[in-house]
Amino acid sequence: MKQYDIVIIGGGPAGLAAAISAKNAGVSDIMILERDESLGGILNQCIHNGFGLHTFKEELTGPEYAARFIAKAQEMEIPYKLGAMVLSVSPEKVITYMNKQEGLVQISAKAIILAMGCRERPRGALNIPGFRPAGIYSAGTAQRLMNIEGYSVGKEVVILGSGDIGLIMARRMTLEGANVKVVAELMPYSGGLKRNIVQCLNDFNIPLKLSHTVVGIDGEKRITGVTIAEVDANRQPIPGTEIHYDCDTLLLSCGLIPENELTREIGVEMNRVTSGPNVDDKLQTGVEGVFACGNVLHVHDLVDHVSSEAALAGENAAAYVLAKAETESAHKVTLKAENGVRYTVPQTIDVANMRDSVTVRFRVADIYHNRSIAVYYGDKKVMSRKKRVLAPGEMEQVLLKKDSFKDYPDITEITIRTEEA
Amino acid sequence: METKNLTCIGCPMGCALTVTIDGDEITVTGNTCTVGANYAKKEVTNPTRVVTSSVRVCGAAIARVSVKTATDIPKNKIFDCMAEIREITVNAPVSIGDVIIEDCAGTGVKVVATKNVAAK
C-alpha cells in the first residue's frame, strides 16, 4: 500500500490552501484527492464577485479566487487526483478511493486533512407538503446548472430561504431574464450577508418576506405554483395569511450541512451544533494526525476565512508529520459557548503548546443589538468587545493570545458569551 | 436636507451608514473606514456595480465560461450590459482576463473572462 505523508480529502479552497501551507512547512509527499473533474470546489460555480478582500485585498470572482490557489499548487508541483471519490477512511488512516484510471485503491497517510466542504439541505429535510414535481432545485444546483452547464433553469421563480446562495441566485436569475417574485424566509431575519441582501434583492426590488414559509406546492409533472404563509413565533403557519404565487421554479436555500460521512467513520467526536468534528487549537480532531478545515469543520460565510483556517491545518499537519512530537495535550482547556454564542471552533485549546495566538470563530443564535462579546478565563472576565449588531449569518471571532494565559495557570475552561452592553 | 440609510458593501462588516445630503454637502456617519464614506457618497450620486455573468463556450468540457465587467458600470446600465453578454459565444481555450467584449453597452468598460477553460 502506498503511503503518503499527508493526504488531503477535497481539492476546493480548503484543500488547496492546506496543501500549499503544508508544502511551505516542509512536507512534499502530499496527495490531494478531488472527486470533481477540476480543482477549486464550489468556487467554480460562484461566478459573482466579492471573494478575496481579506486574502488578496481585491475583489475577485469565485473562479478567479480558486485559480490563484490552483496556480500556486501547480507551480509548487503538489500532486492531486481528479475524479477520485474517497469511499472510506479508517482510524488507522487508510484511505479507500476510486477513480476511472486506477479503480479501487487503498493508500495510507501519516496525516489526513479533511476538507470535504458542505452540501445543501435538501427538500426532503424541510417537510414541505405537496407533490414532487420537476422545477424544485436547491439554489446551488440551480447555480451549477446555469453557470457551468448552461441551462436557464426557470422563468417564474420563488425562492425559499435567504441564505447567501439563494440571494445570489435571485440576482443571477433576474439578470438572465427570469422574474423572481419573492424570497420567503422562515426566520425573522435573513441568514445571508447584508451586502447580498442589498445587492441581490434591494437592487432589483425583489421582496424578502421574513417569517414566511412554503405551505403548498402545486403541479404534478412540473411545478405550477407555490403557496407561502406567514409563521408565528413557533414557526407554525398562521391560517389566513396564505399567498399564492404562480411559478415554474422553486429554489431552496435553507442551510448548509458539513459533509462528514467519512469523518464519522473515522470515529472522531462530532459536534452537534456545527455538524463537524470537534477540534483543538491545531485543528486536529479527536484522532491523532487527522485535521479538519473549511466548511467540513463548520460552515463559513467567507472563503478568505476558509483559506486562513486551512493554511493553519496544513501547517499543523506538516508539523505533526515532521516532528511526530508533542501530540499529548499538556494543558487542555475547554471552550464553552453560552448565552447567545452557539458554538466555538476550536472546541479545546492546549494553552501550554499553543501558538502565540489562536483565532476562535463562532456564531451567535439570534440578531442582537448593542451587546458585547465577553471572554472568561474560568470565572474572570478577561475581554469584552461591544458590537452594534450581531447576526447568525455573520461569523464572529476573537483572538486569544498565549501571553494572556500567564496569570491563569490552573484554568480549565474558557467561556465565550454575549452580554448586555 | 435628505437622509438615506444604506448598508455598506465594501467588506463583509456591512456597516449601517446614514447619509445626509444637504445641497452639495454629503455627510456620512456609521462607517468604520474610508471605504464606507466613499461608498455612501458614490451610492447617492453615481451608483455603480460590477456585473458578473457567463457566456457560451464551444469546444470545452463545460458549457459556460464566467465573465465580469472589468470595472464597475453605472447601475442603470446593468440590463443593457446583460443583453450584450447574452449574445456572445466564445471558443475554448479561454484564459482569465481575456477580453470578451471591448466596450459593453457604451460604458467604455470591457467584459473579461474570469475562468480558465481548456480546449477539449
Explained architecture:
The complex is a heterodimer of chains A (421) and B (120). With 421 residues, chain A is of the alpha/beta class. Chain A is 19% helix and 35% strand. Chain A has three domains: 1-120 and 255-327, FAD/NAD(P)-binding domain (3-Layer(bba) Sandwich); 122-254, FAD/NAD(P)-binding domain; 329-421, Immunoglobulin-like (Sandwich), CATH 2.60.40. In chain A, the strands form seven sheets. In chain A, strands 1, 2, 5, 6, 7, 8 and 19 form a seven-stranded mixed beta sheet that branches. In chain A, strands 10-17-11-12-13 form a five-stranded parallel beta sheet. In chain A, strands 22-20-27-24-25 form a five-stranded mixed beta sheet, with no helix packed on it. Chain B is α+β, with helices and mostly antiparallel strands. Chain B has helices at 34-45, 78-86; strands at 2-7, 16-22, 25-29, 48-49, 52-58, 64-69, 73-74, 89-91, 99-101, 111-113. In chain B, strands 8-5-6-10-9 form a five-stranded mixed beta sheet. Chain B starts with a strand and ends in a 7-residue tail after the last strand. Classes of the chains: A alpha/beta (421), B alpha+beta (120). The A-B interface holds A 37, 44, 47-49, 53, 59-64, 67, 146-150, 172, 175-176, 193-195, 197-199, 203, 301-302, 388-389, 394 and B 6-9, 11-12, 14, 16, 49-54, 56, 61-64, 66, 68, 75, 78-79, 82, 86, 96, 114-116.
Quick description:
The complex is a heterodimer of chains A (421) and B (120). Chain A has helices spanning 13-24, 62-75, 139-147, 164-175, 194-201, 261-266, 303-323; strands at 2-9, 30-33, 49-51, 60-61, 80-81, 85-89, 94-99, 103-114, 118-120, 136-138, 156-160, 179-185, 208-210, 212-218, 225-230, 243-246, 249-252, 256-258, 290-292, 332-338, 341-345, 348-350, 357-364, 368-377, 380-390, 396-401, 413-420. With 421 residues, chain A is α/β, with parallel strands linked by helices.
